[in-house]
Amino acid sequence: MAQYQATPPIPRQLPVQYEPPFDQPWYGIDFGKALARLWQKAFVCSGRASRSEYWYSILFLALINIGSKVLLPFVTKLFPDDIPAQFYSGLGIVVLTFVATVFFMFTISLRRLHDANLSGHWLWLPISLHLAGPALTLYGIVRVFKASLSGRITSLDEPERTQVSRMVEQEGYLLIIVGLACFCASLVIMLVLMCKESNPLGARFDRNPVLLTMPSPAPYPIYTQNEYWQDTTPNQDIRPETAHFETATQYNEAEQRGPGIAPEPHI
Question: Helix H segments across 41-123?
Fold first, then answer.
């Protein structure tokens, strides 16, 4: 009886992950590669960025901001007796972290919009609301504080002084509400834009854009009376006695003569 040797099991091979070109999105990218791309494309506004690349980068920037806030008290302790040195060192850390975070967020947000086939100008909407919100809120707080001071104006009578103070206070509270609404709206709009699905048509924002257009259909041939028939496909609507005509003129003459008259021979 023949004996057969068992075939050893084939080891499972993991698929090799393909690294796309520099200006194209990398779908399914890991955290380390996303940070590498964030640094390499710090000054690049063209191209696209996938959602995973964007959110990994945002997570890293948030951790950097939290780390700077934790590091701030330890830096100020390096100058225990020098108040100006403590102030300027802390201010330098805060400003440097803020500028770097805003710059990196701006460039990668542009590339994320490109991946959704949206122009980068859409980013100005949440940015304007994000800047207008705190400004209106701060101005509203100033107005409320001014309302408390207007009650001390001695040149006005008591009823008039109370009315002016109430109007200024109402304006201040209204500005605070509008400012907070603008700030929240900017966050919601930014979240909606950054969560949009990828669109292949966003390739038009790459360095070497690929035009994803369908080829135009070939035009139909136009025949005149003096041209020969090009279509040799049999047609049931053509009568047998007119099937041997070679020009449109002979066919029209046969139609005028009618089916009972024999066609003229072609010379």
Answer: 51-76, 83-115
Rounded Cα–Cα distance for residues 222 and 105 (Å): 58
- Residue 189 contacts by C-beta under 8 Å, 6 or more apart in sequence? 125, 126, 129
* pLDDT (tens digit per residue) in 126-161: 999 999 999 999 998 888 887 777 655 545 556 666
Backbone angles phi, psi at 196, to 5 degrees: -70, 150
Dihedral of CA atoms 239, 245, 246, 251 in degrees, nearest 10, equals -80
Interhelix angle 51-76/158-194, nearest 10 degrees: 130
φ, ψ of residue 68 in degrees (nearest 5): -65, -35
Q: Which residue do the tokens 């101005």 mark?
A: 139
Please state, as a whole number, how many other Cβ atoms lie within 10 Å of the Cβ of residue 123. 20
Helix, coil or strand: residue 188? helix
CB half-sphere exposure, 59, CA atoms < 13 A: 11
The predicted model scores a pTM of 0.64
